[in-house]
């Protein structure tokens, strides 16, 4: 049946209609379809069944087969009034089928509070050409319910409060014009619920407080032009949820406090327009949620307070568009923003996550991970390959940055070193100089470990020789002064060197290999031990009084100590000035 028409005209003739299955009607309805210019583009014949005949079939409890029929002003409200039935009392309809039927009504086509018997209920290919369509409060038995390939020209449809048995609910390839599409408070049974490839156009699409049981929910390639899409308070069972390549248009998309159950949720390549995207308080028992290569527009994106401690959520290569993005207070097993372009403020103050992957991202604005009014527990933080043009608000101690990077399992020592370098430069830009020093130390340590590992992989002489410069760097740069970040550590190292050389002079003296001699006759009557430490002090600090001089092996040690003294004082000066100037 043609769907791309602007208007239609119905002409009922007193000509017998014979359907393909042998059913007959005394009259035939010819429906002609017209374009915007009023030109006829197609026509089709239907059996014109009298509405009172339909009511009689229902009352007698016979199977109601309306395939290829034209039905005018069908209303169970009228049926109840005629037969003295209460307004919301269920009306039993047996063996129902209305494939390729043509419905029209001035007010509404009313199936509200009907009770369909078990078995297939099909409206496949039907047109609801005029008037609102009501199924509210209806009960469907076990079996498939099919509204695929249907056209709702009025755009206002209502399934509020329906109950479905086990079986599939097929709403695929349908076209619903502008209006309110109300699927609130529905209880679906086990089976597939599919709105795949359906066009909902503009208006409100409501699934508030709807219950989806075990099975599959398919919204793949569905298109909504604008308005409101509301799944607020909906509950899903153990089912696969498909929103892949769904076009949400410029709608407000509301998934607040939705319970996604324990299945797999797929928003890959979905297109969100310029409306608000809200998943605040959504939960999931276990599974995966994927937004890979999704595209979002100008509106705010709210993923706050999501409770998904056993769920992996991925936004890999997602385009977040303009507008802030917030995951404040959410809990995930793992979360990935890998390879995203983060051009606007991103609030990543997660309450808890085993892994936060922001690797290979380009950051042009602010990423906020720093705790404020609650602790942020991120066990592993992966920033490998990040290009940080903006700022990263993070705290070395509260965010446990050291552990968060070292806990990474899939990154090399070189990649870990690079992440510490990113943190070091970021802390410098945000004025957190103590945190900068901590990050710089870890950067240099992992850089050294990476170099040593690379040399050892070469084998041979390179493997053996690599230990010499690595050991020197470990002792002099790291242990003595923490890469010039700790003047206190350097000063302590100075004292240790002085004690070491003083003790060495004393041991040389008592062994007879050398000694320190007083050129002024030892007026203070210093013991050999005290004279050794005195000589060590004036040599280390290059004072050069000349009142005590070395003899024998002590001359060699004195030369070495003099060099160490100059080196260590320079080291201390650099570390101290670095602290003061910042």
Would you give an account of this structure?
The chain is of the alpha/beta class. Among the domains are: 1-48, no CATH class; 487-581, Helix Hairpins. Helices cover 26% and strands 32% of the residues. The chain is built from ten helices and 46 strands. The protein has a 20-stranded mixed sheet that branches. Strand 2 and strand 3 form a beta hairpin. The longest helix is centred in the last third of the chain and has 29 residues, at 553-581. It is rod-shaped and about 140 Å long. The two termini are 77 Å apart.
Short characterization:
The chain is α/β, with parallel strands linked by helices and 582 residues long.
The helix tally amounts to 10
Task: Output the CATH topology of one domain.
Answer: Helix Hairpins
* Biggest beta sheet attributes: 20 strands, mixed
Helical amount among residues, as a percent range? 25-40%
The CATH class label of one domain is Mainly Alpha
CATH-derived architecture of one domain? Orthogonal Bundle
Average per-residue pLDDT, rounded, comes to 92
Beta percentage is: 25-35%
- Overall number of strands: 46
Shape: rod-shaped
Low-confidence stretches: none
Please tell me how large the radius of gyration is: 40 Å
Strand-pairing-aware structural class: alpha/beta
User: Terminal Cα separation, in Å?
Assistant: 77 Å
Which key features would you list for this structure?
about 575 residues; 10 helices; alpha/beta; Helix Hairpins; rod-shaped; about 30% strand; 20-stranded mixed sheet
Write the layout of secondary structure elements.
Layout: E1 7-13, E2 17-18, E3 24-25, E4 28-34, E5 40-48, H1 51-60, E6 63-65, E7 69-72, H2 76-82, E8 91-97, E9 102-110, E10 114-116, E11 121-122, E12 127-134, E13 139-140, E14 145-146, E15 151-152, E16 157-158, E17 163-164, E18 169-170, E19 175-176, E20 179-182, E21 191-194, E22 199-206, E23 211-212, E24 215-218, E25 223-230, E26 235-236, E27 239-242, E28 247-254, E29 264-266, E30 271-272, E31 277-278, E32 287-290, E33 301-302, E34 307-314, E35 325-326, E36 331-336, E37 341-342, E38 346-347, E39 352-357, E40 362-363, E41 366-368, E42 377-382, E43 387-388, E44 391-393, H3 401-406, H4 413-429, H5 433-458, H6 460-465, H7 467-479, H8 487-511, E45 514-518, H9 528-540, E46 548-552, H10 553-581
Parallel strand pairs: 5-7, 6-8, 7-9, 8-10, 9-12, 10-13, 11-14, 12-15, 12-16, 13-17, 14-18, 15-19, 16-20, 18-21, 20-22, 21-24, 22-25, 23-26, 24-27, 25-28, 27-29, 28-30, 28-31, 29-32, 31-33, 32-34, 33-35, 34-36, 35-38, 36-39, 37-40, 38-41, 39-42, 40-43, 41-44
Antiparallel strand pairs: 1-4, 2-3, 4-5, 45-46
Helix pairs in contact: 4-5, 5-7, 8-9, 8-10
């Amino acid at each position: 049946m043609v769907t791309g028409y602007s208007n239609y005209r119905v002409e009922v003739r007193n000509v017998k209609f014979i359907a393909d299955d042998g059913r007959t009607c005394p009259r035939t309805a010819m429906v002609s379809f017209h374009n915007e210019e009023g030109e006829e583009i197609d026509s089709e014949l239907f059996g014109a069944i009298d509405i009172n005949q339909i009511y009689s079939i229902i009352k007698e409890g016979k199977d109601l087969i309306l395939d290829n029929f034209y039905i005018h002003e069908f209303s169970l409200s009228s049926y109840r009034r005629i037969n003295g039935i209460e307004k919301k009392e269920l009306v039993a309809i047996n063996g129902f089928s209305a494939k390729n039927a043509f419905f029209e009504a001035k007010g509404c086509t009313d199936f509200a509070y009907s009770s369909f018997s078990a078995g297939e209920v099909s409206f496949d290919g039907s047109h609801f050409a005029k008037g609102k369509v009501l199924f509210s409060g209806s009960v469907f038995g076990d079996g498939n319910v099919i509204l695929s390939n249907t056209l709702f020209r009025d755009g206002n449809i209502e399934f509020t409060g329906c109950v479905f048995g086990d079986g599939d609910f097929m709403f695929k390839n349908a076209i619903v014009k502008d209006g309110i599409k109300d699927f609130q408070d529905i209880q679906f049974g086990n089976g597939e619920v599919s709105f795949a490839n359906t066009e909902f156009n503009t208006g409100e699409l409501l699934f508030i407080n709807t219950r989806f049981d075990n099975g599959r929910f398919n919204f793949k390639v569905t298109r909504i032009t604008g308005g409101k899409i509301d799944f607020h308070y909906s509950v899903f069972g153990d089912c696969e949820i498909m929103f892949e390549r769904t076009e949400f248009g410029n709608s407000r998309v509301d998934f607040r406090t939705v319970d996604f159950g324990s299945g797999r949720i797929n928003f890959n390549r979905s297109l969100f327009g310029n409306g608000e995207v809200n998943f605040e308080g959504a939960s999931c028992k276990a599974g995966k949620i994927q937004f890979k290569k999704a595209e979002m527009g100008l509106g705010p994106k709210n993923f706050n307070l999501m409770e998904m401690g056993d769920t992996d959520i991925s936004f890999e290569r997602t385009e977040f568009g303009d507008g802030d993005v917030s995951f404040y207070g959410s809990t995930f097993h793992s979360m990935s923003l890998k390879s995203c372009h983060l051009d606007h403020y991103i609030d990543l103050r997660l309450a808890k996550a085993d892994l936060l992957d922001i690797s290979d991202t380009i950051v042009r604005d602010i990423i906020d991970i720093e705790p404020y009014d609650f602790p942020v527990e991120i066990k592993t933080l992966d920033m490998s390959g990040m290009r940080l043009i903006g700022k990263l608000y993070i705290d070395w101690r509260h965010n446990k940055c050291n552990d968060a990077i070292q806990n990474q399992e899939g990154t090399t020592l070189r990649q870990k070193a690079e992440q510490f370098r990113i943190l070091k430069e970021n802390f410098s830009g945000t004025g957190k100089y103590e945190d900068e020093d901590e990050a710089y130390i870890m950067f240099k340590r992992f850089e050294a470990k990476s170099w040593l590992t690379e040399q050892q992989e070469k084998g041979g002489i390179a493997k053996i020789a690599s230990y010499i410069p690595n050991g020197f760097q470990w002792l002099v740069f790291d242990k003595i002064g923490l890469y010039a970040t700790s003047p206190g550590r350097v000063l302590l190292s100075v004292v240790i060197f002085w004690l070491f050389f003083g003790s060495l002079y004393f041991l040389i003296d008592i062994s007879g290999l050398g000694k320190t001699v007083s050129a002024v006759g030892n007026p203070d009557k210093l013991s050999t031990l005290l004279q050794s430490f005195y000589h060590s002090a004036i040599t280390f600090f290059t004072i050069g009084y000349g009142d005590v001089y070395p003899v024998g092996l002590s001359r060699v040690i004195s030369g070495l100590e003099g060099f160490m003294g100059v080196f260590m004082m320079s080291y201390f000066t650099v570390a101290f000035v670095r602290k003061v100037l910042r």
